[in-house]
Design a protein that fits this description.
Keywords: GPI-anchor biosynthesis, Membrane, Transmembrane, Transmembrane helix. The chain is mainly alpha-helical and about 280 residues long. About 70% of the residues lie in helices and about 0% in strands. The chain has a two-stranded antiparallel sheet with strand order 1-2. Helix 2 runs parallel beside helix 9.
């Protein structure tokens, strides 16, 4: 039954017949989560938090003179080669053929980047000399927080931006490197930032897609490494960081699944009209 809206009708404006609620649907598009699947997805957040923690611990050890830059450079170079091999092994046959073509280009790019960074390391060392140390530390903290906020965790959120996340992380590394004793320390710190914040996320996504078990193992290794490094600096900080990791990986997934029980999205004839595929083709 159709009614003319501009004419007076024998029923009130908010009148609905008995068949109105027969077309009511609830939670037809609701996604049901499994606990261990959510725990697995939370490992991306765990790895990023651990990466930032490891980066800060490395900087503190270099600033205190407890970590030789030559040893860190050798360790970083060896880990980069291992990561490159793992990335090559996890590719399929087609990916390996493509990687064989770009292997020499990758090597040239790495040489150019290392040379360029080493040449400009004195500039990085003296870039923020006129800025107070407290301001530099505050900027580094805010930039690392921005890296965690804007990092692409695999969602379609508009706030995610790989470019912005990487840029603020590199800026934080430059701020911290400027307070190290020598230009060599600044060079090694910038290289470590690129390895942790640029190269590692690429390998991380590859491991997650191809070998989930090894991805879980690497996540645990990163988390325990961050906890061990932080424990050497502050026991209270290590305990708080451990509580944060447990909350993100265990409590938050449980709370998310528990909240799904209270989810109630309703759909019915009052929703906006949807253009069907056949009608859209006719209109076009």
């Amino acid at each position: 039954m159709y009614s003319v809206l501009y004419e007076l009708q024998p029923f009130p404006d908010n009148y609905v017949d008995r068949r109105f609620l027969e077309e009511l649907w609830k939670n037809i598009y609701a996604q049901k989560y499994q606990y261990w699947a959510v725990v697995f997805e939370s490992s991306v957040v765990i790895q990023q938090l651990s990466s930032v923690c490891v980066f800060v611990v490395i900087w503190w050890y270099m600033d205190e003179g407890l970590l030789a830059p030559q040893w860190l450079f050798g360790t970083g170079l060896a880990s980069s080669l291992i990561g490159y091999v793992l990335f090559y092994l996890t590719d399929g046959d087609e990916g390996r053929k493509k990687s064989e073509r770009t292997r020499r280009a990758d090597l040239k790019g790495a040489q150019v980047f290392i040379t360029f960074t080493y040449g400009f390391s004195p500039v990085l060392k003296t870039l923020t000399e006129s800025v107070s140390t407290d301001t530099v530390y505050a900027m580094a903290v805010f930039m690392l927080l921005g890296h965690l906020i804007f990092f692409d965790y695999g969602t379609n959120a508009a706030i995610a931006s790989c470019t912005l996340s990487l840029n603020v992380a590199v800026f934080a590394s430059v701020c911290l490197a400027s307070r190290l004793p020598r230009s060599l320390h600044a060079f090694i710190m910038a290289m470590s930032a690129i390895q942790i914040f640029a190269l590692w996320p690429i390998l991380q996504k590859k491991l997650k897609a191809c070998t989930p078990r090894s991805y879980v193992g690497v996540t645990l290794l990163f988390a325990f490494s961050a906890l061990g490094g932080l424990l050497s600096l502050s026991a209270v900080g290590a305990i708080l960081f451990a509580l944060l990791l447990v909350s993100i990986s265990c409590l938050c997934p449980f709370y998310l699944i528990h909240l799904q029980l209270f989810k109630e999205n309703i759909y019915g004839p009052w929703d906006e009209a949807e253009i069907k595929e056949g009608l859209s083709r006719f209109l076009s």
